[in-house]
Amino acid sequence: MEVRERILQAAARLFMELGVRSVSMDDVAKDLSISKKTIYKHYQDKNQLVFDTISMHIAEMETNTTLIMSEEDNPVLQIAKIADFVLQMNKNVHPSVLFDLQKFYPESYSHLIEHRNRYALQSVNQNLKKGIEQGLFRNDMNRQRVARIYICLIFSMFQNTLFEGEENRDFRDEYIETIKYHLHAVTTEKGKSTFSEISWLQANQNH
Predict the structure, then answer these.
(1) Is the pLDDT of residue 41 over 90?
(2) Residue 137: phi, psi to the nearest 5?
(3) What are the phi and psi torsion angles at 139 (to 5°)?
(4) Which fold has domain 45-202?
């Protein structure tokens, strides 16, 4: 792995685990056991490093979502498999990540929002359309509005202010509950049958 990529991977991990604002270039250098000067050979400043980690995150998300949606024909299972990928990708997400981006790194935040409004929204719309066509999702919904509501729910979990005061947040539990909430809202009885067979989504039902 090249030095530039190692720096990017380490920074992305630290940003996710500790929050973007709290991680300095010194922290990244220390984590990699390299000099800060080496980092500045590859990245002009922290703004560029943050932007590139967001770009990497977006690219990984889009690549894997596209792959899942092309390989899995069942829209209910598409949602479950994408959710599983997101959970693996964000195992140790810090609650301030999105807030830090919005307040201190507006260019990176705008980049992420552009991805949300373009790719993510389009993907959810495509999933809902297929679910309706297959009789797995309700045909009486306003698909465009439901897609926006779902995207807002997902992104809200990364907004620190929504869960202010909660000391022991469990991102996995919150995310699973959001997925379940969405699927219960949009599925027909046929769709609910498929949903009920996804064991890991049912595991937290008594929490």
Answers:
(1) yes
(2) -115, 150
(3) -95, 5
(4) Tetracycline Repressor; domain 2 (1.10.357)
CA distance 26 to 31: 9
* Residue spans per domain, the chain: 45-202
- Percentage of the chain lying above the pLDDT 70 cut: 92
For residue 79, give the nearest of 154, 170, 7, 141 by alpha carbon: 154
Residue 8 · residue 56 · CB < 8 Å: yes
Give how far Cα 91 sits from Cα of 16, 173, 191, Å.
9, 11, 28
Give this prediction's pTM.
0.89
The contacts of residue 29 (CB under 8 Å, 6+ apart) are 35, 36, 38, 39
CA distances from 47 to 6, 25, 89, 103, 129 (A): 17, 11, 22, 13, 38
